[in-house]
Amino acid sequence: MALKITSRLFGLTQRVISCHAFSSSAPSRCGQFTVKHDRQNQRFTVTPGSGAEAAECAVLYYKFTGEKEVDLMSTFVPETFRGQGIAAVLSQAALDFLAEEDLKARISCWYIKKYIDEQPPQQYKDFIIS
Fold first, then answer.
1. φ, ψ at 30 (rounded to 5°)
2. Could you tell me whether strands 43-46 and 32-38 are parallel, antiparallel, or unpaired per DSSP bridges?
3. Residue 67 contacts by C-beta under 8 Å, 6 or more apart in sequence?
4. How many other CB atoms sit within 10 Å of the CB of residue 107?
């Protein structure tokens, strides 16, 4: 049991990402969000609330479709946290993951497609399978 919990903890990668770094039009109230990469469950999560709201989390799901290929399948942000740039932060974390691991991605999620199309830098375009 302890081994299972320990391995799960080591499987989580945590980084703090400021949404201001991704969009100059992001609201100033957005601050910093902690994105957790849960490799075992193939998802990125953000828990923006505290207290009772902490049970709600935003999530981006992906799955491996080949050895070096993933499908960025979906994003979900709880209604109470929408409009704060959280989906953009999750999308950026997923794109950073592609770059760090030298992966190619198919994009099934409409939001991630929109996010990529709206980004001026072309640095991630080479990782996307059309």
1. -70, -30
2. antiparallel
3. none
4. 21
Q: Give tens-digit pLDDT for 40-98.
A: 999 999 987 665 555 689 999 999 999 999 999 999 999 989 999 999 999 999 999 99
Chain center to CA of 28: 20
**pTM score:** 0.73
Helix (H, G, I), strand (E, B) or coil at 29: helix
Residue 67: what residue type?
Answer: E
Hey, is 22 helix, strand or coil? coil
φ/ψ of 109, rounded to 5, equals -80, 125
Of 92, 87, 123, the closest CA to residue 21 belongs to 92
Nearest Cα to Cα of residue 86 among 2, 17, 13, 39: 17
Three-point CA angle 114, 116, 118, nearest 5°:
70
